[in-house]
Task: inverse folding
């Protein structure tokens, strides 16, 4: 099984090249996989949730979920060499996400889809499937995420991801994601949300890696006062939630 890095020390782990991303994308979309497989944007969201959550599962725990929810969704590889190649690409993409978050979580760049609609010249950013993948990642470890759900700012930070990616939302919430423009606006809020979530769980991840003592699971991360507020208001944090913040 390829090694999954922790990146406690500075290492250079380049992202997959464009050619390699295309190779992985082509395999995910091929007849070798079932209709339950995660496509590239969904996969990126799924891996990001695992990388920025409270504890990183082992590859043998998360790799099968990429193909689908059941063992019957396992891909039909042409050879052992192909299986090794695709597994390597998946693991390297996970490592690149871990590295990117470790280096600069506040400027993380998700892999979003782009949508165009007849009669509309605008090309819309659409993070719906990315968010679905992220929520799937949370569901793998839902009990471990409870501290964030119960924190003051956690549900606020998660809200754009939840609205776009939750399997079920209320009728009132559905009104917030009806149009491409609404979904694009929520998608633009996701990088700030990822940065907040990554920092929230940093103490627990360090403890899980054996790098520190017992963490405070509800310790909220520090947010740059000039960063966009994770609530999605469009204002700077210091002018929004940061103006009246009370620690959890």
Result:
């Amino acid at each position: 099984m390829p090694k999954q890095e922790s990146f406690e020390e500075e290492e250079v782990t380049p992202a997959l090249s464009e050619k390699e991303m295309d190779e992985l994308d082509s395999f995910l979309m091929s007849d070798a996989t079932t209709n339950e497989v995660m496509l590239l944007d969904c996969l990126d969201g799924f891996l990001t949730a695992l990388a920025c959550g409270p504890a990183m599962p082992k590859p043998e725990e998360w790799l099968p979920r990429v193909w689908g929810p059941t063992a019957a969704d396992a891909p039909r590889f042409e050879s052992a060499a192909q299986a090794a190649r695709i597994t390597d690409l998946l693991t390297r993409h996970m490592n690149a996400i871990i590295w990117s978050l470790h280096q600069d979580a506040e400027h993380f760049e998700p892999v979003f889809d782009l949508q165009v609609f007849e009669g509309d010249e605008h090309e819309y950013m659409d993070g719906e499937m990315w968010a679905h993948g992220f929520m799937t990642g949370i569901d793998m470890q839902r009990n471990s995420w409870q501290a964030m759900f119960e924190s003051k700012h956690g549900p606020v930070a998660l809200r754009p991801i939840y609205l776009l990616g939750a399997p079920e939302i209320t009728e009132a919430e559905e009104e917030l994601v009806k149009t491409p423009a609404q979904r694009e606006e929520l998608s633009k809020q996701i990088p700030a949300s990822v940065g907040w979530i990554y920092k929230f769980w940093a103490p627990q991840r360090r403890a899980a890696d054996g790098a520190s003592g017992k963490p405070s699971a509800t310790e909220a991360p520090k947010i740059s006062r000039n960063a966009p507020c994770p609530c999605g208001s469009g204002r700077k944090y210091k002018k929004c939630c940061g103006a009246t913040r009370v620690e959890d």
Notes: DSSP finds ten helices and two strands in the chain. Residues 212-223, 229-233, 244-248 have pLDDT under 50 and may be disordered.
